[in-house]
Amino acid sequence: MSDFAGMEELLQDFLMESTELLSDVDNKLVELEKRPNDRALLNDIFRGFHTIKGGAGFLNVAPMVTVCHRTENLFDKLRNSELPLTMGLMDVILDATGAVRDMFTTLGQGLPPANPDPALLAALDAALAGNLSVEAAPAAAPAAAPAPATAAQSNEPDWNTLHAAVSGSSPATTAAAPAAQPAPAAQAAPAAAAAPAPVASTAVEVIPAAASTAMAPAAHKAPMKTSGGGGSVSGQENTIRIDTVRLDQVLNLSGEIGLTKNRLTTLRTEILQGNMETNTLRSLDEAISQLDLLVSDLQNAVMKTRMQPIGRLFQKYPRLARDLARQLGKEVELIITGEETELDKTMIEDLNDPLVHLVRNAVDHGVESSEERIAAGKKPQSVVELTAQQVGDHIVIEITDDGKGMNPEVLRRKAIAKGLIDAETANGLDEKQCLQLIFLPGFSTKDQISNVSGRGVGMDVVRTNIQKLNGRIDINSVQGEGTRISISLPLTLAILPVLVVRACNQPFAVPLAMVREIIPIDTTAIQEVSGRPTIVVRDEILPLKTLSGLLNWEPTQKPNFGVLMQSAEKSFILAVDSFVGRDDVVIKPLQNIRPKGVAGATLSGDGSVVLVLDMEDLLSGQLDTSGPGNMMARGVDNFAY
Description:
Radius of gyration: 30 Å
Structural class: alpha+beta
CATH class of the largest domain: Mainly Alpha
Number of helices: 19
Number of strands: 20
Distance between the termini: 45 Å
Largest sheet: 6 strands, mixed
CATH architecture of the largest domain: Up-down Bundle
């Protein structure tokens, strides 16, 4: 067992680095379709895949080596101009990379991958023979292929032992696992054959497994590992790689805070001994100011350790767009910019599903077929752009297409026909509000349900997930020109910018991202519309909601101010008694309770508890005034967090 100590970490490193490398290979394959004669690009693809095969060979994952070896032979024939790069050949290659990715997932679950699909191997063999129409053609083994290593003559661990080391079970337990089929000639090539490959991403440097008995961390990076990444054995992405420069900054700030603490301790001793001279008090004030600056810098430095380039997420989408466009018979080019923009790692993971929906919708709904585009006087190839940039303290992600755009009137009629809104409500919507109808659950403009779309759940999921990240999503569309969907997100979920207000002598915090402006409330300006109070702001009729009313609390005074807020597609005015100010807070969960409309709590400067409101939840209905869950109706004196 000692021979396989650290095998779990080795497997985690292989999965993390090879997953990133495979994504890079996929993106370069999509580029290769556009530039089939780019030999440098093809060489990069070959080296990347060869590195993956080397790691799989070291771990003795024979099914993966089998697929990698056959695919690598295809790349070699393409490099030597022995095969033309056709659309059908690229489909087979991408099927092979997809099979390898599936094996990564299986490995991440601590299980041995199944043998490759015979149909895939037959297609690869047919491609190697230059005849994709042949269902199964024998692959010609390379003449110089080394013989597969046997257990007696190789130091490579067998899969059962590796599985036992990773899962914590005994080899006897794993003996019943399916055995990997013997590899054909050259598929179990010694790991020493793996050559270092250049890596496109600057964030991770892939080191071949063959270079050592353990896969070394990327140079100049400090991996902080908990349960693996990319394809961790736990199946959960909990690994983050941090530049050592950022860790050095945290260490230096910690040291300076320690020195300032020592200075404060000395000054405290002097003051307790009765030294209240002006110089002592001035030194105390300077030390406290210095500590305030250092703590702020340390907080920012720690937050930066959570930041990761969003390009690691974007790299998944070129192949997604390519495969879907091919399935739909469309010509689509996906252009990605702003990959270096950094975002909180946890938010990057939660953004995957919404962005998958948006990219798929742009290709499926947004852009037209080549024939339709030519008839409309456009280029036959459509363009979908995915961009990210930092704007102030927010990240803005945009998905733009040059397709047919959306017709607000068609959306209005569809929503009425599906019974999602009534005709009276629909007639009161302006064009921008009509565009927001696509986020309603069950809304779809497709009459036929396909395996791509038509069920009306995609955009609803998008909005829900973005709101969970304290973000906003907006739509702009021009008929005949295209659609732009913008997502605005805070840089990090760890710290939430809030506006602290007061109602019923109690402070509350509302997310600053929802605040448009603050206005004074003139009681003479309040009008009744359909029995509900409203205020007209710049010709816009906005409903007036009191914070005390949303909380089911008895008001202690008439509200003096209104916070003009934007919640999804709804704008309204939140009436409050007064303001405390803007603040950046760290939200703490409440123990054992989850009152409706409360995201958590934080502490004010004077030590009092401030409830952080979940406005979407609060607006979804009035609070229940009975039962143990209605803690808000009793104040916050007994809150603990």
